[in-house]
Amino acid sequence: xxxxxxxxxxxxxxxxxxxxxxxxxxxxxxxxxxxxxxxxxxxxxxxxxxxxxxxxxxxxxxxxxxxxxxxxxxxxxxxxxxxxxxxxxxxxxxxxxxxxxxxxxxxxxxxxxxxxxxxxxxxxxxxxxxxxxxxxxxxxxxxxxxxxxxxxxxxxxxxxxxxxxxxxxxxxxxxxxxxxxxxxxxxxxxxxxxxxxxxxxxxxxxxxxxxxxxxxxxxxxxxxxxxxxxxxxxxxxxxxxxxxxxxxxxxxxxxxxxxxxxxxxxxxxxxxxxxxxxxxxxxxxxxxxxxxxxxxxxxxxxxxxxxxxxxxxxxxxxxxxxxxxxxxxxxxxxxxxxxxxxxxxxxxxxxxxxxxxxxxxxxxxxxxxxxxxxxxxxxxxxxxxxxxxxxxxxxxxxxxxxxxxxxxxxxxxxxxxxxxxxxxxxxxxxxxxxxxxxxxxxxxxxxxxxxxxxxxxxxxxxxxxxxxxxxxxxxxxxxxxxxxxxxxxxxxxxxxxxxxxxxxxxxxxxxxxxxxxxxxxxxxxxxxxxxxxxxxxxxxxxxxxxxxxxxxxxxxxxxxxxxxxxxxxxxxxxxxxxxxxxxxxxxxxxxxxxxxxxxxxxxxxxxxxxxxxxxxxxxxxxxxxxxxxxxxxxxxxxxxxxxxxxxx
Amino acid sequence: xxxxxxxxxxxxxxxxxxxxxxxxxxxxxxxxxxxxxxxxxxxxxxxxxxxxxxxxxxxxxxxxxxxxxxxxxxxxxxxxxxxxxxxxxxxxxxxxxxxxxx
Amino acid sequence: xxxxxxxxxxxxxxxxxxxxxxxxxxxxxxxxxxxxxxxxxxxxxxxxxxxxxxxxxxxxxxxxxxxxxxxxxxxxxxxxxxxxxxxxxxxxxxxxxxxxxxxxxxxxxxxxxxxxxxxxxxxxxxxxxxxxxxxxxxxxxxxxxxxxxxxxxxxxxxxxxxxxxxxxxxxxxxxxxxxxxxxxxxx
Lengths: 648, 102, 187
Description:
The complex is a heterotrimer.
Chain A: H1 2-22, H2 28-54, E1 63-72, E2 77-84, H3 86-109, H4 116-135, H5 139-157, H6 164-195, H7 200-207, H8 212-229, H9 238-241, H10 247-256, H11 261-268, H12 270-275, H13 277-298, H14 304-325, H15 328-355, H16 368-371, H17 373-387, H18 393-406, H19 409-438, H20 444-448, H21 475-490, H22 502-507, H23 524-550, H24 560-567, H25 572-619, H26 626-647
Antiparallel strand pairs in A: 1-2
Helix pairs in contact in A: 1-2, 1-4, 2-3, 2-4, 3-4, 3-10, 3-15, 3-21, 4-5, 5-6, 6-7, 6-8, 8-11, 8-13, 10-15, 11-14, 13-14, 13-19, 14-15, 14-18, 14-19, 15-17, 15-18, 15-21, 17-19, 17-21, 18-19, 18-23, 19-23
Chain B: H1 6-26, H2 30-55, H3 59-87
Chain C: H1 2-26, H2 30-50, H3 54-79, H4 93-118, H5 135-143, H6 147-168, H7 172-186
């Protein structure tokens, strides 16, 4: 079983290394398949670990396997150790499973790109990093995985590095993530200092002895990292820009796995958060704010991928809401179902983009239902799951979170209302997208590409591989979509509120000092009321979307101020530009003028000028006059005699 | 010893030396400069001889002979230079010969 | 009486020395300067004799006055008109002032230094034999104690001779210059 865990971790690393080292000796296809197989091997390892855990009693489902001692000082010791417990195995399965499907999909999507090998090496690297993050047996290794994931994200967002927009987006993502990394590192410092270890169990135990301020600081630092990685407000501005990367990257990193790392962190470190209730509540609050803001901004987006990106932000807000209120199991459940239907949506969107030779603006689209019927169905399934319509997966997971909110007292009830509003918004923006893209008469662009994606000249602004194939894409692209569609439908049946809780029970062992993991258990009544409300509101949102965008019966209401704010994403980018970027630029300019040029540059040119002038002055002594030379000697002798005599 | 004491010889030597220095520094013709240089060397020789007499040691005289030989060599080279300058139709004026000006 | 004679000779010689030295540096005509130097050398030879350096006095007259000065006169004769025509002194005033200052300073210093360093001992010359300063003594020393100096001096003289020949040799360019001048003068 531990062998399975190690296999899971190391297979993608081996894949990445071999692709890198083999370089151009292997064909691009081969590199793609190496990467795909390495991720599927990881899935196999995860399955082995899962089965191994199942075979044990629930109390024993926590195995730590160490490779060697990484750091050993008298006060502090860190091992290279993996933790195999229900939580990590769940994440392993999701990451390697969904990841494998997405990498397979990339084979078709990235076909023809001249730098395909680099792409697949990066994808394998990413999967390895994410697995390291979730399998880490201590916070230090988790931080290593955290950082590597950020690196992989940077590399993949900026994959098409000839595009300045992609480079800028990659930098933005990295900088914001670096901020989160810094706060996390500070939290770890406090933890190390006070408890002497970064091992999960030991630090959780030690955290109980910390002062309230210290625990708050640690929790806050962890929350900072989680917020940055999961693109919650206020560190969210990088996620929409990250859509500059290839669509499979958006699917894998910015929907299914990396952005969920923040949720994983909160669930993993829940003992610390429970000791800092204010921060815990803050996490839930941030989640609620994010789900509302993201939902609103998604209403005006015109890029198909950005709508889905804001949707991701919003759904992770739900997960934060759940984790922040102590409904860890439900949050993880939603994480899983979200991975299914969000990856599905991204990949279906990728099929559309692929079909339309790189076009991503939904205003150019319309009536794709006729041209791409299978994609239409996939997208529909994904959208219904997202809105939370039974019996699809989203229904079970999202409503579970909302029910937990309702059961969590006054604060929770406020968040409950926010979540319900969010459900309405979700229905609205999701089906706005769906209707605009798929319904109606085919737009000119769609008609142009009706015969399937054909081998046309590459669009210089959106480099994108093209091969001649019929249907809606090669099998490497359509099969993963089909698999995910099935999962999006059935994935929710793992936990039916009030009836059947295998998922929640599965995660119970990671509770620290408790029998059950969840802090709150909603009553059956609360469950049903929540579900009814949520589904109802979702349907209302869908109806509004139908009215506005589907049947085009009403014009879209427009308010200039609101439209402006939404289009500017609530002015966050402008705010950060004002607070951070502009002062930094001013400061560097002032420094350059005041310090760099005169002092450092000036000292160097001052040195050279001084040297030149001295040389010139000294050169004046070379008069060429014999007599002046002789005079100099005579005078010098006179002086020397005096010196000698006086010294005597 | 008969006659003036050694000190007088040394005074003459000092005076001769300064006369020679003045000549080197003040004249413009290289020939005269060379001649003044000879005066300086001779002044040194006189001092050496005087001290040799004072200490009763021949070393001063030996030294003076060596100085004489070196002076002769130096005159050879100096005159050769002057002849070369004259051959190239240059002015025999140390102030004009400034090609080595830095 | 003998002492008085010595004194008189000494004063004459010294006067001649200094006087001819001044003459050297003040005459415009280099020929006259050379002649003045010859008399300077002669006066010095007398002073050498008075200081019991007979061999050196003879060497002075033979080598210096006889050979070196003759060489000088040859060159002055060769240069002819070209050796004249330069002013007595010129150049920037600071050189002139500086020269006078330097010369005076050196004079004063030398006197003072020697006075300070060896003032009392100067009045006590050693007792020497009659053969002090004779050729035998000098010769013996050159070939025993100061053999190295002797040999090196001979090498220096050799180098000087070679240098003189090299400097004095004519180049083709000079030959052509001379021919052109002669042609112009003749034509």
